[in-house]
Amino acid sequence: VQLVESGGGLVQPGGSLRLSCAASGFIFSSYAMRWYRQAPGKERELVASISSLGDIIYYVDSVKGRFTISRDNAKNTVYLRMNSLKPEDTAVYYCRRSGDYWGQGTQVTVSS
Q: Which are the contacts of 30, defined by CB distance < 8 A and separation ≥ 6?
């Protein structure tokens, strides 16, 4: 199992980013996928999750209405579109598959 995140960077408050997580080594369409984040000095938190077919989606309250999780099972990729970014969204973002498989993370920094 391999998960590789990309798309992080430095963005101004109010800006947008789209994170991608490319998966390999398993049947991607059979698994729900999750995005987590960890800010400095804080515990890792679940940000969003999406079922294997994309029909069941969850968001933590702090990102509802701003973030959108989606997946493309043909491309073995899960996405996290982040709009109206705030400084408190600054964190390392990770994708995760059940069985405790994690990517290496991608840094998102929201700052003027």
A: 52
3-state secondary structure of 63: helix
* Predicted local confidence at residue 99, as pLDDT: 87
pLDDT at 15: 98
pLDDT, one tens digit per residue, over 93-102 is 999 998 899 9
Q: How far is CA 29 from the centre of its chain?
A: 17
Is residue 110 within 8 A of residue 15, CB to CB? The reply is yes
Closest listed residue to residue 5, CA positions, set 107, 105, 110: 105
Which one, of 68, 111, 67, 65, lies nearest residue 88 by Cα? Answer: 111
Q: Name the DSSP letter for residue 65.
A: T
Residue 86 per-residue DSSP state: -
Name residue 25's amino acid: G
User: What's the half-sphere exposure (Cβ side, CA atoms, 13 Å) at 72?
Assistant: 8
Each residue of 35-73: pLDDT tens digit? 999 999 999 999 999 999 999 999 999 999 999 999 999
Tokens of 39: 């800010």
